[in-house]
Amino acid sequence: DEWGRVKVQFPWDRSDKNNDHSSCWIRVTQGWAGATWGSMAIPRVGQELVISYLDGDPDQPIAIGRAYRQTNLPPYELPKLKALATTKSREFGGTRANELRIDDTTAQISAALMSDHEHSALHLGYLTHPRHHGGGKPRGEGFELRTDGHGALRAAKGLLLTAEAQLKAGAGQLERQQVIDVLQAALTLARQLGASAENAQGVAQDSQPQQALTQAVNALGHGANDQPHGTGNGTHPIIALSGPAGIAAATSRSIALGAGEHIDSVAQHNQQLTAGKKVVINAGDEIGLFAQGGDMRHIAHNGQLLLQAQHNSIQVQADQSVEISASQQHVLVAADKHITLLCGGAYIKMQGGNIELGMPGDFTVKAANKYFIDPSNAAAELNSWPATSFNERFQTRFTNGDPIRDRAYALIRKDGARFEGRTDGEGYVTLQQGMTLEGLVLEWLDNGEPA
Predict the structure, then answer these.
(1) Letter string b/e over residues 362-371, b meaning 16 or more CB atoms within 10 A of that residue's CB
(2) Residues 39 and 30 sit within 8 Å (Cβ to Cβ)
(3) What mean pLDDT comes out for the span 126-148?
(4) Staple 404 to which of 132, 216, 329, 396, CB 3.0 to 4.6 Å?
(5) What is the chain's Cα-based Rg?
């Protein structure tokens, strides 16, 4: 009932009712009983109770204990498992159980808190498989918290996950000096190389978020009973992760790493990034690459190396030499306005279809032969090449979608080159090739004149 009382069937009761009229309500002693606090284990149907009588009064029965018997056996086989102490329950209307088990087997002590729901358990000490008949196959040492269901680990004021040794709990709960030292060294290196990159006209590095996180780890736990005088806010909800011999993270699928602000990755030695297929780096603002003491190499082993500044300029500078070579094909330098080559006060300038040469010294030409022939242009030259970066064969159509067949036309390129011809049976004009993006003009002709 509401007071934790039960009714029993006495073995000597010849009426043998086995119902709620078998006895009066009988109180049950508990190991700990206070006003809405204490321990509670209500006897269940089928359990054998030991009944006593207060002051020897048969009208004041009280259950003072419970006992096992031949038809009500203990949870574990005895005497084989006499080293076990357990509190094991049984699901109402089911077969599952919850259990707090203490195992004092010689040299194999352990404790376990278990629930059959989702096979959830906390195992501590010398871990074994269940000791159903006395033995138990070893399965590890230390602790295991496991479940077949979901799991969560929460700490609102910060969490330390570490593999740093702390033998026999000889230091504080949040002892983390090693992770602080590593974070501080990483911050120092990031600042030093960031300053060097900025001095060399590289992209400036913002180390403030990394510094703030390092300080938060340093202050973790300040104000607690073992760190009452620590400075800083010791309750930042951060996670500090430390593995003195290394940290390995692996999955056969994907890893997603996201940050609302910064991601700072620092290695005192090498930082290596490898992908079996593609590596894609996108930035909404700037990308800075800086090598302080060694080479910087960009190599496309089989594919094309493409370098573009789509809406601005490209600067290539060197303290010593700049070398450009093509082992098997050509080197093309193209510009919309002009190209100027400078050296020692002399220059060559190409602009508007003209070439201008200027020099403070001599102009020497050495050649076996010299030819001055009719004019030409770059567009005509590029159209004769076997391949170029940009090429297009345009198709002409009427407004109803039909091809414009066998019609005379003239194509005018950006450099003024003019190409005349007739559309073919599908309305296509002659293939045009170039090394840069450019516009062109198409004119229809009538007897050689614009129509």
Answers:
(1) eeeeeeeeee
(2) yes
(3) 90
(4) 396
(5) 43
Most confident by average pLDDT, 152-166, 227-241, 407-421: 152-166
Bridge partners (DSSP) listed for residue 240: 160
* Integer Cα distance of 44 and 28 in angstroms: 12
Rounded Cα gap, residues 186 and 268, in angstroms: 7
Measured CA to CA in angstroms, residue 194 lies from 41, 96, 259 at distances of 65, 61, 21
Q: Exposed, middle or buried by CB within 10 Å (0-12, 13-18, 19+), for 179?
A: buried
Mean pLDDT of 262-289: 95
**Model confidence at 447: pLDDT above 80:** no
Return the HEC string of the chain.
Answer: CCCCCECCCCCCCCCCCCCCCCCCCEEECCCCEECCEECCCCCCCCCEEEEEEHHHCCCCEEEEEEECECCECCCCCCCCCCCEEEEECCCCCCCCCEEEEEECCCCCCEEEEEECHHHEEEEEEEEECCCCCCCCCEEEEEEEEECCCCCCCCCCCCEEEECCCCHHHCCCCCCCHHHHHHHHHHHHHHHHHHHHHHHCCCCCCCCHHHHHHHHHHHHCCCCCCCCCCCCCCCCCCCEEEECCCCCCCCCCCCCCCCCCCCCCCCCCCCCCCCCCCCCCCCCCCCCCCCCCCCCCCCCCCCCCCCCCCCCCCCCCCCCCCCCCCCCCCCCCCCCCCEEEEEECCEEEEEECCEEEEECCCCCCCCCCCCCCCCCCCHHHHHHCCCCCCEEECCECECCCCCECCCCEEEEECCCCCEEEEECCCCCECCCEEECCCCCCEEEEEECCEEC
User: Are 239 and 161 in contact, with CB atoms under 8 Å apart?
Assistant: yes
Beta bridge partners of 125: 110, 142
Please give the C-alpha separations between residue 443 and each of 409, 418, 424, in angstroms, as whole numbers.
5, 10, 16
Check if the beta carbon of residue 158 is closer than 8 Å to that of residue 234: yes
Q: What's domain 1-73's architecture?
A: Beta Barrel (2.40)
So what's the pLDDT on residue 448? Answer: 64
Domains of the chain, by residue range, sit at 1-73, 74-148, 177-242, 378-450
| Contact (CB, 8 A) for 216 and 238 | yes
C-alpha distances out from residue 260 to 209, 264, 269, 443, Å = 11, 12, 27, 56
Nearest-angstrom CA–CA distance, 183 and 215: 9
Whether this prediction's pTM lies above 0.70 is answered by yes
* pLDDT given for residue 349 in this prediction: 95
